[in-house]
Amino acid sequence: MKRIDLEREDLVRVWRRDFPILDTRPNGKPLVYLDNAATTQKPYSVIETESDYYRNTNSNVHRGVHWLAERATEAYERSRATVAQFINAADPSEIVFVRGTTEAINLVANSFARPRLQPGDEIVVSAIEHHSNIVPWQLACEHTGAALKVVPVDDTGTLDMRAFEALLGPRTQLVALAHVSNALGTVNPVKKLIDIAHRHGIPVLLDGAQAVAHMPVDVRSLDCDFYAFSGHKLYGPTGIGVLYGKAKWLDSMPPWQGGGDMIRTVSFEKTTYNELPWKFEAGTPNIAGAIALAAAIDYVGSLGFAAIEAGEHALLEHATGELQNVDGVRLIGTAAEKSGILSFVVDGIHAHDVGSILSDAGVAVRAGHHCAMPAMARFNVPATVRASLALYNTHEEIDALVKGLARVKELFGS
Amino acid sequence: MSDIRELYQEVIFDHYRRPHNRHDVDHASHTAVGYNPLCGDRVKLALRIENGIVTEVGFDGEGCAIATASASMMTDLVKGKTLEEAEQLIERFQGMVTGDPEAAQRDTESLGKTRILAGVRDYPARVKCATLAWHTLSAALHGRKEHEE
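^ Those are the sequences you sent over. The predicted structure of the assembly is below.
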């Protein structure tokens, strides 16, 4: 057993070399980057693909007839196919490039939910959603007179399945849930949730921002109707993200932004729209971002989710045990099914003080409400400290976190 | 970046553990609540101002060490000051924690103990923790009931 762990650590050490920023030394101390739920670091292949694009390929897409334009278009569309394959979509046309998870959800809220919602209709979310999976629905509800219904969670941060099913009714138009909770790390039983919703004839959107970098996602096996994620939490660049939607839904939805590229013909009398997915991609897209995202997907694919998951899971177990051993530390979010997110509070010490003092020791964590204020309210804390793991994190880094916490407590004299 | 201990000095911890002026104010003439939604810090401030002088001031609320110590030291400082002096102190404190160090050093003498918070300049994400109580004071003096960072 121990031998396998050592092999795993060796593997992680090799992976770490792919990420140049990990050599940074804040305050002369080694960087311990445990804020991966906010954004992940980028491997050389992603950084180089993006700069390579600007060096050798840069052109606008779907417009020019010249050599560079064709080359850029081909690379951009090849990236779409890479994404489709990555989440096992039936067709690349079901992949819409957007800025990130937030924009993906807003697209669905505007083009799918709003036209369908009638006064008295309902949208179901959970108590531990990120604000980006709450506010777009609230806006849609305000506009239409629909209402938001909230699935409660228990004290471990696990969704109440019975309450979930009880909330589904004839007025429910959509269920929108996190695949993995960003504030607590809970992995929701999404397959089961989707089955239940579908039995009631209700489509489901999954916010996959915290999932795609940590576990294989198969949208067809899940049978989800929409799946949203960001490139930058998947070792890719910021400003690029993905909305997957079943073709039957995307086809039925009106465009949400107008402009170039999303049209077929324009006249002042009547404009006809482009086919999927370009109908939803008005304006020049983040071409370099999409291509670099494909490089990130290729990178993750080259390591394999089996190895990534095994490493992160072992580290999560180690970190959970270590943190539980620190006097005065209380973990928030202790669901049986968890991803590599450790949210915690320290007795008598505010999360921001903990975060600042840890930062001084070179340990980067998030301190705050993690854009999930209702989740914080559910657990009756104003804020938590959050350490979140990625494929390049080591046992030593968890030890540095624990050592940093000892220093926090020492400074506070508690 | 400087050592974190320059910010988290013993004085800060003293004020955090045993805040001064953490109490209600009888016959308060000016009150305001300050809130920082980013971290959930909240400061409730009450003052009694008689003949243009702050004769009593108290606060309550929850916050990090920096926010609590800042409220504690601020209330110590403004007690007994005229409205004009209080306004001046707000401006100087703001300058000290955000402005350039030279200008700040020149006219911070009047800021007394609160000068220990100057170190927060090196931690931009924490400046609002230090200014919350001061901005709430400003809101109270100007008749606004709420302040949000």
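The longest helix of chain B spans residues 83-98. Chain B touches chain A through 23 residues (CB under 8 Å).

Shout if you want it in another format.
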